[in-house]
Give the backbone structure.
Amino acid sequence: MEDRYFAFISYASADRPVADALLAALEQRGLACWMAPRNINPSTDYGEQILQGIRDSSVLVLVFSEHSNNSKYCQREVERAVHYGRRIFPIRIDSSVPNGPMEFHLSVVQWLEAQGESNWEKVAEQLAKAFEHTNTSTKSGAMPTINGIKPYQFGGKECYSAEQLTAALSENWDEGVKNFGRGFVSEWVKVDLRNFDLASRLLDI
């Protein structure tokens, strides 16, 4: 079943203006988003709606700042997104670096830098392009899986293991380096292979 929303937007209340601007920019591109409190129904349980919003979204977009880094709510949303196998795209809006629970979950994902940014249409475009590189669905439907693993597509090949991907990358190392640098490989290893140790070591490459 297809996800109802492109992104669940996670943010701290102090960053609400940025979250609103990002929401508007994404939806202007036709990318439906879930964001509290807009999508909250006051007649049903708040916590369950947050969980359902994450489950109904393809990715979690985190407006990352000093505020969200220390927000228990944002930490829980990120943790649940990892639990549900959703891709996470943090957008850094200040000079903060993740620590504690955020460091654990965000150490091997692709970051978008937006410090001092005011052109949120540009950020939305960058986010859409980043998602296209790591998207696990095609226009005709979901990619096939082997043992529940969704393939990493590279060089016209579908890789279902680290060994297969290594072989594919070795055939076009210049392009492979770009995939490493953008965080695509480490994210796939973490999210799809669920190999956190290897994903962490890939950061040193």
Observations:
- The chain has a mean pLDDT of 83.
- The chain has ten helices and nine strands.
- The longest helix spans residues 120-134.
